[in-house]
Amino acid sequence: MNYFKTAVLLVALTLILVWAGSIFGGRQGAVFAFAIAMGMNFFSYWYSDKIVLRIYRARQITGQDSPKYFALVKELTANAALPMPNLYIIPSQAMNAFATGRNPNHAAVAVTEGLLNSLTHEELKGVLAHELSHVKNRDILICTIVATIAGAITMLANMAQWTAMFGGFGRHDDDDSGGGGVVGLIALAIVAPIAALLIQMAISRSREYAADKGGALMARNPAGLASALEKLHQAARVRPLDAGTSSAHLFIVNPLSGRSFASLFSTHPPIEERVKRLRSMA
């Protein structure tokens, strides 16, 4: 069901891009914006893992550095038939974790020192299984595709805003030119980016639910992950991680939950609903 929802939302996002292109510059407008967004996100897809790990000063570790962490990931990857990812520790007493990498063969899992020191064995196992489920589901690829389309829509909306300010296109006789006039451009500038953001949030939330379910099955203990989510949610309120909005969606719980305005546009589903679903599995 989560994959079906993701597919439907991706189709909706694509239709918004087609509509935005037809309003601003017809087929040529849509292709132009999509090509630029694709180029930007191509770089992100190949190098974002290195960038985000560097941002959070994550340190790569071996089995000797953290035997418990290493052994749990090795056990889970063996059960799930996944390659062993690179493991990192973030020097922070906040409690959080994320996975990154363009595919299972080039994946990385990072956890904070606070998370390693505060969770029980089963809770830590549940969190790591959740992150490995993201890797197995290739969610980084899905998020990159979504970001590419949403970025193209936002780019067209920004261009439409400036075009509307200067009186629109003038002539619209050609089928390949923009045909919405000033009113269409204003609608594009306002409606399209909001719709793209809402769909992007919905896809991200759907992937989180899927990773919760996959992680619970991988760890064979839904209660462990549910308990961990409750602890991480409370910890994020008391000691939030110093995270940027551009990378907040990567983490298992929203690191911006302590900031009320940012939480309105959270890419994470409510913790209460996530815990409820996991408890029902148990």
Walk me through this protein's architecture.
The protein is α+β, with helices and mostly antiparallel strands and 282 residues long. It has a 4-stranded mixed β-sheet with strand order 1-2-4-3, sandwiched between helices. The protein contains 10 helices and 4 strands, in the order ααβαβββααααααα. β3 (97-101) and β4 (107-112) form a beta hairpin. 66% of the residues lie in helices and 6% in strands. It has helices at 2-24, 26-55, 67-80, 113-118, 121-136, 139-165, 181-219, 222-238, 260-263, 271-281; strands at residues 59-60, 86-90, 97-101, 107-112. The model is unreliable at 169-177 and 259-264 (pLDDT under 50).
Spatial sequence of strands, sheet with the most strands = 1-2-4-3
Largest pleated sheet: 4 strands, mixed
Distance between the termini: 19 Å
| Share of β-strand residues | 5-15%
Q: Could you list the spans in which at least 5 consecutive residues all have pLDDT below 50?
A: 169-177, 259-264
Broad shape: elongated
Helix content: 55-70%
